Amino acid sequence: ADGYDPRAVQDKWRDRWERLAAHRAGGPDDPRERRYALDMFPYPSGDLHMGHAEAFAIGDVSARYWAQRGYNVLHPIGWDSFGLPAENAAIKRDSHPAEWTYANIETQAESFRRFAPSFDWTRRLHTSDPEYYRWTQWLFLRFYERGLAYRKGGQVNWCPNDQTVLANEQVVGGHCERCGALVERRVLTQWYFKITDYADRLLDDMDQLEGGWPERVLLMQRNWIGRSTGADVDFVIEGRAEPVTVYTTRPDTLHGATFMVVAADAPLAEEVVAPEQRAAFEAYREEVSRESEIERLSTEREKTGVFLGRYAVNPVNGERIPVWASDYVLAEYGHGAIMAVPAHDQRDLDFALKFGLPVRVVVETGAPDPAATGVATPGEGTLVNSGPVDGLGKADAIARTIELLAERGTGRAAVNFRLRDWLVSRQRFWGCPIPIVHCPSCGEVPVPEDELPVRLPDDLRGSDLAPKGTSPLAAAEQWVNVDCPKCGGAAKRDSDTMDTFVDSSWYYFRYCSPDYTDGPFDVEEVRRWMPVDRYTGGVEHAILHLLYSRFFTKVLYDMGLVDFTEPFKQLLNQGQVINGGKAMSKTLGNGVNLGEQIADHGVDVVRLAMLFAGPPEDDIDWADVSLQGMTKFLARVHRVASEVASAPGADPAAGARALRRVTHRTIEEVTGLVEATRFNVAIARLMELVSAARRAIDSGPGAADPAVREAAETVTVLLSLFAPYTAEEAWERLGRTAPVVTAGWPAVDPALLVQESVTCVVQVAGKVRDRLEVAPGIDAGELEALALASERVVEALGGAEIAKVIVRAPKIVNIVPRR
Ligand code: ANZ
Ligand code: ZN
């Protein structure tokens, strides 16, 4: 309607930006201060979708803002291109996973070009390129040398659908995070990264992230690491030489321990069970092995268990307590056994009431008797029935009990973590091969550095890749059989590949020197660019990816390769794009296609709508978004620029002062709002400035006024963060020859921010009689004179004599008449 079509100008500007290399990061000699704007790199699962568009629109605002502020900005892009979907697609299409992967990458790259985030395309990387995974393997070997990569046998999570193991982190509520299948437990030998060695540092270093990361993400990380403090207590088991150690957070309640529970699936249960109870125990254990993880962890479920026919001796009072096995105690936490204090722990109480075991209160909390109510009292109180700690409060009783245990050598203070080591091996093809050879005489032998990368074979396709329970690589004879690097004898390559979270744990280092061939990154370049100033991406990565990346950074620090311990100073989690109040899904049929939105409305309209819909952290309901409103706004900007275009440029100082004040206040405010990532409010301020410029053209000084040009130019530069194509077009209209992406951020004239007048209230005998507009710096004498000269004041006084004049410049004058 306004003769401006945001879609029409896209190709023209895209080509020009690319010719200009407008978004390329400066080299080592660039003297400007540096900023690193990082976006979570995409997985090439198809074309870009609405979620990508939102995340990358948000990330781009920071990058463009810093560039306009004169920083040397690094804003790279790449692909997280290993992973299962590519393999599944290859099986279905009888092709190689690379075909699907790289075709999708090209599709996404083309969509990105149109969507125009200010990427430095020269740094593009793909984690599935041998040039990249060579260094993933190199890092694996460094971890191996440091004892941080190791193999162990044990129970693992197994997805029966994807036919591969899963890390604990990839099991959500007992189901495979990817495909939703119910996860099984299997005993297998697998590779792990020893992230537990870093548990304390991963927690403590979070102090550095306070303020820069969302509070809830820090909380999620803390809970995931799950540091708990308490004591290890040794119980002698009758008829067994070794004592059994239990971990407890409440050593103060030791006198209330009335039985012990061992995890039914822990080797310990098998060891301690008495001969006459073995049959019952084995039947129970069989039952437990068929239960899913969800069932086991449910608190709703009735407790189950079996007596093991043994007694343990409480080290503080010599009391004999029965030893049971149950599924509510986990084999892999603490020592896989607990002392049960039913009065003060709900799980233990449920168990005691079910099996008729005694309940003894040892902490008087004032609440009713747990044995009668069925409700345990875990809170604070005074110790009773507890010998030497009677009368103490919880904290003192904990400290005293630990002292007593330590004196007798039957216990000690202890710390436990929920965090487990990171299981990194996967029995799938499309991932980074593990650079280890297994030799019958030498054992595990690292692949020599000069033989990296261990490349994936390119002749496996289709059904060669179908899940068989072992890696498809194990069946690739040519590939798997090698000479041992140490003894030269016949040996086999490790046929597992790495979890793709390994690939993504270090890609942001690689961006600093993507073509470097002497190591995973150029140490100097990383020193220059990192840590990342702002990392933008989805909250679904709040735990895993960020925890692993933090772990990698600390290992690199310990290796002396980097001089910082946290990779991301600031984290910005965008919300989701939903439709009609619900997440988009095939079943609901409420999906919105990004390509269609862009074809219908243009890139700028889609970007602006996403940024204007609310704060970046909030979900965007696409059903509530007004694309027409955004189109109209951009057309208004375009029209203002066009009308001003015909007017000659002149010194803005000569222009309408009121409009200039609005312009400069807008610059000031938008600067603060963008810094604080309140992009939606920043856009609202721009809309107000456009309205002010419109009014100045229509009913003010007109389009030829230099202040109107100043307003139009300001709008254009500020708008370039959000709607870059329209901004570029308007800038050209305004007669500027260099593109707006190189314009620089407008400077604020502080004189125009100063309030020019304030309202002074004039009272006579306490009643407001007049209001005067005065200069903020007016002196008391001048203000008194002005007030006394006011017609309304004279009228109110009615000739009365003045007793007193109280002046509080510049706001109040109070005149007191004589009575
Ligand atoms: C006695 C006790 C009394 C406990 C009481 C709690 C309250 P967090 O905080 O998660 O570390 N526990 C220890 N090992 C366990 C295992 N393998 N499986 C299930 N539960 C286990 O929890 C530590 C508490 O969880 C420990 O403290 C223990 O129960 C239980 F009034 O010991 B407590
Ligand atoms: Zn050998």
Automatic annotation (TrEMBL):
Subcellular location(s) per record: Cytoplasm
Leucyl-tRNA synthetase editing domain boundaries: 222-403
Ranges in a coiled coil: none
Chemical reaction(s) catalysed: tRNA(Leu) + L-leucine + ATP = L-leucyl-tRNA(Leu) + AMP + diphosphate
SUPFAM superfamilies for this protein: Anticodon-binding domain of a subclass of class I aminoacyl-tRNA synthetases, Nucleotidylyl transferase, ValRS/IleRS/LeuRS editing domain
Motif ('HIGH' region): 42-52
Residue ranges annotated for the Methionyl/Valyl/Leucyl/Isoleucyl-tRNA synthetase anticodon-binding domain, each copy included: 657-779
Alphabetical list of InterPro entries matching this protein: aa-tRNA-synth_I_CS, aa-tRNA-synth_Ia, Leu-tRNA-ligase, Leu_tRNA-synth_edit, M/V/L/I-tRNA-synth_anticd-bd, Methionyl/Leucyl_tRNA_Synth, Rossmann-like_a/b/a_fold, tRNAsynth_Ia_anticodon-bd
Superkingdom, taxonomy of origin: Bacteria
Family affiliation: Belongs to the class-I aminoacyl-tRNA synthetase family.
Family matches, as HAMAP family: Leu_tRNA_synth_B
NCBIfam families: leuS_bact (TIGR00396)
Protein name: Leucine--tRNA ligase
Lineage: Bacteria, Bacillati, Actinomycetota, Actinomycetes, Streptosporangiales
